[in-house]
Amino acid sequence: MLLWNPAAADSQGTTQNQNDDGRFRHEFKLVSQDLAYAGVMGILRAEALLGELHPRRRVQSLYLDTPLGRALEENLAGISHREKVRFRWYGEDTCHVAGRLECKVRHNLYGWKHLAMVEEPIQVEGCDRFAFVRQLERGAASDWMDRLRGLEPVQWISYDREYLGSLDGRLRVTVDRNLTASDQRLRAKLCPRFKTPTGRLLIVEVKCSAENYRAAQRLVNRLPMQVGKCSKFVTASSPAEGPMPALLWT
After folding, report:
1. Per the domain annotation, does 249 fall within a domain?
2. Range of the domain at 101
3. Cβ atoms within 10 A of the Cβ of 56, count?
4. Where are the alpha helices (DSSP H) in the chain?
5. Could you report the per-residue pLDDT of 13-50, keeping only the tens digit for each?
6. CATH code for position 215
7. Cβ 110 vs Cβ 81: under 8 Å
8. For 44-63, how does the pLDDT look when each residue is reduced to its tens digit (9 = 90+)?
């Protein structure tokens, strides 16, 4: 397996591609059926020579929205500037977890994130929905109070993620599968059971800085997958609006 050396990449001035601290980035989303996984990974590893950035792990997120679903409606309407707030952590734990708040911003073709570590472990499963938000408010920096005001948990989403990157540090790729979602909008206490049907999806995201757009486009053109909108948040909240991928190739 080809491994990527983040220290070496940083020394070459490629930290723009980390893009988790408010810097702009381009993001291509591709979706197919999970049966295409082996073929897609073969292209990414053997042909595109992408290496592993981080071991595979389970990603869990609790998305927050207003009671009337402002973030969902803005996404469905294609509003040029929109934001999504979520609490994210890693691993299988669902009770007291250490994580961070993320505000994912989309403006026309660009996207970026604002991040804030939550200082204390957060109780998730079994927590009262409003008490959960109060925990976030206590644990986050003061400048997050405005972002959290009026929000409540709406979707609990988890999936397995693999992290790949080019040797020169210009491109990052994530490969997501085994997606599960549980609707929290009518729940008094948070619970990951009673899953929303989402299908067996394979979701690939190719991320790059603006100057590396063409390199990312060349990689995307090699993959036998559909390029387009594929929001896990929308898929969980309104499955009829989610992707219906054809199996292009295995």
Report:
1. no
2. 17-238
3. 11
4. 6-11, 37-42, 70-77, 129-139, 145-148, 213-222, 232-237
5. 333 333 444 456 888 999 999 999 999 999 999 999 99
6. 3.20.100.30
7. no
8. 999 999 999 999 999 999 99
Q: Nearest Cα to 208, choosing from 156, 243, 170?
A: 170
Asked if residue 33 is part of any domain, the answer here is yes
- What is each CA distance from 39 to 62, 174, 175, 201, 205, in whole angstroms? 31, 15, 12, 14, 16
At residue 107, the pLDDT reads: 85
- The answer to whether position 66 is within a domain reads yes
Q: What is the pTM of this model?
A: 0.86
Q: How many domains in the chain?
A: 1
Q: Are 44 and 175 in contact (CB under 8 A)?
A: yes
Within a domain: residue 10?
no
Instruction: Give burial (CB, 10 Å; 0-12/13-18/19+) of 179.
Output: buried
CB atoms near residue 79 (< 10 Å): 14
- For residue 130, the number of C-alpha atoms closer than 13 Å in the C-beta half-sphere is 3
Structure tokens at 181: 């979602």
**In 10 A of CB 152, how many CB atoms?**
15
For the segment 93-142, what is each residue's pLDDT rounded down to a tens digit?
999 999 999 999 988 877 889 999 998 899 999 999 999 999 999 988 88
